[in-house]
Amino acid sequence: MNLHQPIPEEQTGAVEIRVRGRVQGVGFRPTVWRIARELGLMGEVLNDADGVLMRLGGNGDTIARFLERMESERPPLGRIDHVETRPFGGDLPREFRIADSVGGAAHTQVTPDAAICKECAAEVLDPFARRYRYPFINCTHCGPRFSIVTGIPYDREQTTMAMFPMCPACEAEYGDPADRRFHAEPIACHTCGPKARLIRFDGRAVSFDQHSMLDDVDAVCSLLQKGEIVAVKGLGGYQLACDAINAEAVNRLRALKQRDAKPFALMARDLDMIGRYCTLDDAARQALQSPEAPIVILLAGGPEHLPEAVAPGLRTLGFMLPTTPLHLLMLRRMTRPVVMTSGNLSDEPQVITEDDAKARLSAIAPYALIHDRAIANRIDDSVVRIMGERARLIRRARGYAPAPIKLPQGFEASPSLLALGGELKATFCLVKDGEAILSQHQGDLEDAATYDDYRKNLALYATLFDHAPQALIADKHPEYLSTKLARTRAQDESLVLIEAQHHHAHVASCLAENGYVLDAPPVLGIVLDGLGLGDDGTIWGGEFLFADYRGYERLGTFKPVAMPGGASAVREPWRNLYAHLMAEMGWAQFTMNFAELPLYAHLAARPRATLDAMIKKGVNAPHASSCGRLFDAVAAALGLAEDTQAYEGQAAAALEAIVDEDTLEREDELLAYPLNIPNLRSSGLPYIEPLAMWNAILGDLILKTPAPVMAARFHKGLARAIVGMARKLARRDSAEGPRFTHVALSGGCFQNRILFEEVVRRLEAEGFTVLTHAQVPANDGGLALGQAAIGAARLIDERAKSREGNVPCASGFQAAS
Ligand SMILES: [Zn+2]
Ligand SMILES: [Zn+2]
After folding, report:
1. Residue 27 C-alpha to ligand 1 middle, in angstroms?
2. Considering only Cβ atoms within 10 Å of each terminal Cβ, which end of the chain, N or C, has fewer?
3. Span from the CA of 169 to the centroid of ligand 2 (angstroms)
4. Helix 753-765 crosses helix 707-730 at what angle (to 10 degrees)?
5. Parallel, antiparallel, or unpaired: how do β-strands 417-419 and 338-342 relate?
6. pLDDT at 805 (0 to 100)
7. 713 phi, psi to nearest 5 deg
8. pLDDT cut 90: percent of the chain above it
9. Per-residue confidence (pLDDT) for residue 407, from 0 to 100
């Protein structure tokens, strides 16, 4: 993008420059001020409702140089989207100045929290600096933002720093445009700011025995080294920390937290330490060191190993670097990684207050590192995974939310609206002024405390973004709490309600984050996930949709197979295995051919009669065309799934984890498991039929083929079938060329790196342009963005229709209703 329009001759002298992007609250004005002064330009810079406005006087060459430097020297958290230059006829101050902000404070962006910057990290460790070992050091380029905001406009009075009046030294820095802390709202120091304190939850004094400790923060390190679990008040919520090398401590934490098998997040003081346990590539290093500083899921491997209890059954580890000065100081002396998991019980939201910490965490951690800066907004650590050499968000929270996502061309005219998201990994999404503001990860709404928090956050975002929706968008599933809430609110507030089909919303989410323009031709959306309600009232989860924002046509699917026990089938993978085998071959044939397998004995011992009755009568055994359930069934066949999986996707993650890379890369394609593409008898829809695959899997079990080889053959075979389906669907009888050229991938199954990379590689080899998720999760955490785009497209069309009496619509599509 060329940001600089040439300045015509007659515009030299004085110009007015408008800059849009992330330019407020990130140190943009002082940067402009510094460069303008260095170049001897006169004029002023100010914040207004549309971003930053500046007026410059000087000769054309100097102004051109200014514009170049403005871009190359922009502050680390700044982002320039658009620059407009026009002549200016008014008077200018001789000495360049920062002028008062004007109007439209509500438009001022609330920016995400940013990890400690390099300058602050160096300063906090400098014994001669005023803020030596000050755990709340920050500047315009780093520090808390969203987590401390209580209202707008974003200034100190509207944050949880309001109770800490600045000391004269801080005040001087705050007011000096030449200082790195000019207008850094959370500015603080030992004298005037918040203080950290190590406490015991039982109220007894902390004894600092024989250790030579610098301060309370440093003392935590000694406790961790001794095997203690410590609660730490982090940026967006409490965390629980323990020594990651100490298997006993890790197991104790797992037991006390009632966290069955989900992997724990880890923190290490530097990249070198992470490199001792994981493979680091450039994309991973970059993500770890970014201002967003997410947890990065890395392939385990290196000279050293962590106890199995850190990430049971997985070959990956989730690492982050110290994100705040508090973490940095705490881990300074720590020569091994620590577990740094969210401070909550089981699936509850993360604790943010001291009272709650005492009530909920004191049974887990005897000690807590607390401080007196309140957390206004709960925000979890974000999680990314490197796939296809790019960091892709799996949980979008700290560091990313609530940064706006610009909607593609064509969406400029969208009215304000609110999409309420799904049920699991829920987020919601505001649309305003052509931008989508996706909330941070909220969690699973079926947890009552999470649902309360979700509603609280809806109110908070409405305030922070001065947002009043004209329409609400929700999933079609009538039992989702988000859908129920949307229906109630639509009625109470007389708002338009649009219900978007689950998998259509996934496709729209992928299109929107890729900037796919509103009126572009439809794509093939391949959406592979657990479960979502289809338009025919059945459960979908492996869908091939010919879709744009306005509607979709279901062109292909996975085989619909019963889920005996409904929700129990999601928890117990063997139920899906049983249903698959019964659908393919029935018990008699299975017995005849495979009775020698341990798997046979395993299934024979199950309450088969009950399951058979459920499947036969169709009672509590809904059919689902789900890719996620297919993964569960295969994992169960390979003996990788315990009776009950602790979290959705655990069995699938275990299956991915054991894949033999050598088989994946080198073995003949012919040995990949075969899946065919016949048509469904009922609807004529092409579907992925796994019968031949099951025969091959059972055959491999008889041959005692190693499970890692089988897992590789499954991933490869599935990817080949998915791409085979795309190829088949693109073909047209007529000479018009392919039906689509673009394929969009979405749904939680695409968080499987091997499936993702195999499918992308094969689609590209077929000549398709592949659109994938990166800024927004492929899982249901990205659903709200897609809902928002579908709703916006609909309302834009309706407005055009009421104006012109007609509406552009992709014919034959099933529109959202
Ligand atoms: Zn800083
Ligand atoms: Zn101070």
Report:
1. 11
2. N
3. 6
4. 40
5. unpaired
6. 65
7. -60, -35
8. 83
9. 97
Secondary structure of residue 287 in the 3-state scheme: helix
- The alpha-helical segments, DSSP class H, found in 56-142 are 60-72, 118-124
Which residue(s) pair with 772 in the sheet? none
What own/partner pairs with CB < 8 Å and gap ≥ 24 does 307-312 have? 307/244, 307/245, 307/246, 307/247, 307/250, 307/251, 308/247, 309/247, 309/250, 309/251, 309/254, 310/244, 310/250, 310/263, 310/264, 310/266, 310/339, 311/263, 311/264, 312/261, 312/263
- Predicted TM-score (pTM) above 0.90: yes
- Measured CA to CA, the distance from residue 743 to residue 546 in angstroms comes to 9
Q: Does 398 score more than 80 pLDDT?
A: yes
Helix (H) / strand (E) containing 545? strand 539-547
Q: With 90 as the cut, is the pLDDT of residue 501 above it?
A: yes
d(CA 29, CA 78): 11
d(CA 198, CA 232): 9
Residue 677 CB neighbour total at 10 angstroms: 16
633 phi and psi, to 5 degrees?
-65, -45
Torsion 568-570-573-574 (CA) sign:
positive
pLDDT, the chain, mean: 92
Pairing of the two strands 238-243 and 230-233: antiparallel
Which ligand places an atom closest to the C-alpha of 168?
2
What's the CA-to-centroid distance between 140 and ligand 1, angstroms? Answer: 6
pLDDT at 47: 85
Q: Name residue, tokens 């009775």.
A: 595
CA atoms of 659 and 115, how far apart (whole Å): 35
The whole-number pLDDT of residue 209 equals 62
- Whether 562 contacts 623, CB under 8 Å: yes
Residue spans of alpha helices (H) in 17-161: 28-38, 60-72, 118-124
Cβ neighbours for 724, distance < 8 A, ≥ 6 positions apart: 677
Q: Which SS3 state, helix, strand or coil, does residue 278 take? A: strand
Q: Is the dihedral of CA 507, 513, 518, 519 positive or negative?
A: negative
Cα 728 to ligand 1 centre (Å): 54
Helices 691-702, 573-584: axis angle to 10 degrees equals 110
CA distance 488 to 453: 18
37: exposed, middle or buried (C-beta count within 10 Å: 0-12, 13-18, 19+)? middle
Q: For 51-55, 206-210, 508-512, which range has the lowest pLDDT when averaged over its residues?
A: 206-210
User: Which of 340, 346, 291, 335 shows the shortest CA–CA distance to 317?
Assistant: 340
Q: Token match 């808390």: residue?
A: 144
Instruction: Sheet containing 435-438: give its strands across.
Output: 405-406, 435-438, 429-432, 417-419, 471-475, 496-500
Between the CA of 113 and the centroid of ligand 1 the distance, in Å, is 12
Identify residue 614 by its one-letter amino acid code.
M
With left for phi above 0 and alpha for psi between -120 and 50, is residue 353 left, alpha or beta? beta
Reduce the DSSP state of residue 574 to 3 states and report it: helix
For residue 153, say if its preceding peptide bond is cis, omega within 30 degrees of 0. Answer: yes
Q: Which residues contact 237 (CB under 8 A, 6 or more apart)?
A: 342, 343, 344, 349, 350, 351, 352, 375, 378, 379, 380
Highest mean pLDDT among 107-111, 206-210, 613-617: 613-617
The tokens describing 378, both together, are: 């709960």
CB atoms within 10 A of CB 457: 20
Ligand 1 centroid from CA 324, angstroms: 10
The tens digit of pLDDT for each residue in 765-809 reads 999 999 999 999 999 999 999 999 999 999 999 999 888 765 454
Distance 76 CA to ligand 1 centre (A): 10
